[in-house]
């Protein structure tokens, strides 16, 4: 389960990311609470707009950010983006402590955070493949998710407590200090042990990521499921904060709900780390589980029961997102991985500008439970999309071992040879280096040497 931690560079990365993510969740809790209770009078729509501005840039800038992740040294890109995020956190904290922060000013900073994260996220996601080999990529990605959710378990609860004890401004300052852990980790890495990678060249290749995904129906379906749940189901800051208020709780109660959600999230990430490789069937099943768990949580009558239901919501969410992330990374041509991951992150983060304002409006008009029901319904629709594709794709067939058992052909991670020039044919059939082991396992169909669409 923890084999990637045997590598020095990954251990350093893991610890730095853990500390930084704890601070990030503390800041996220403080920002949500500032907008909801200090800058407005429990205005969920304003909170939704703030989230939209923060998560919109990855969608708008996707071509540029993906190209940067493929073209430049990802370690240096991360040094720049992490420093920018540190400085922004200090600025917001100082304005809050000075008592001059306003809602329009907070919206400007939310947009600035979004731009910095737009460049940071695809580089950070793809950088994992620079630290570990392809064989360990799925494990490393799952452990990244575990680190993220360990931070999610600790950060919101600590952030909620610190809001009560020292105030929201100081929470931003504390988060700025945690960015130093990631910067130290990036500097301390042994650069000669990083995995050599293929780099894209030239602005003419910006559209290659789009074309590659368009020629991979399995990726199109995965992105669609992720978008549906990301837009309408993963508005947890809006759901948890407004449900906390409905149950008569304050910032500490909101922080506890976020941490309870992380208990299930951490369990899902650790379970994903045990799997040999990411499978699309797990993504589909987890989407359905998310829908059902969300509907159950919306019906809970008390704070404690709602928190208990959130454990299952968190488990299914992270199981889906971690598996989808691993599936996209390990089945994508390395020469295009940065751009494809930029698209993936744009779908996740860019879905928020679509769904968060809608969720906020539903909360203001009908209450938080109605918004949660809409999110649960989106999960069931996502599952239905995946199941429909499986039935129509021809991948589902009767097992050769048992006549009553069905099996699903999965796209496998394969060794890819860099193409001379990208083309439509490359998107459909990536040139591969076929090994005797792959032939023996029946990895590829006899008539086609490429990814199964």
TrEMBL record:
Coiled-coil residues: none
Gene3D superfamilies: MFS general substrate transporter like domains
One term of GO molecular function: transmembrane transporter activity
Chain ranges of the Major facilitator superfamily (MFS) profile domain: 1-394
SUPFAM superfamilies according to UniProt: MFS general substrate transporter
Keyword Transmembrane: yes
Main location: membrane
UniProt membrane topology term: Multi-pass membrane protein
One Pfam family linked to the record: MFS_3
GO cellular component: plasma membrane
InterPro entries with a match to the protein in the record: MFS_dom (IPR020846), MFS_trans_sf (IPR036259), TM_effector (IPR010290)
Compartments reported by the entry: Cell membrane
Keywords: Cell membrane, Membrane, Transmembrane, Transmembrane helix, Transport
Transmembrane region(s): 7-26, 46-69, 76-97, 140-164, 219-241, 253-273, 280-300, 306-328, 340-363, 369-392
Name of the molecule in the record: MFS transporter
Species in which this protein is naturally found: Microbacterium betulae
Upper taxonomic lineage: Bacteria, Bacillati, Actinomycetota, Actinomycetes, Micrococcales
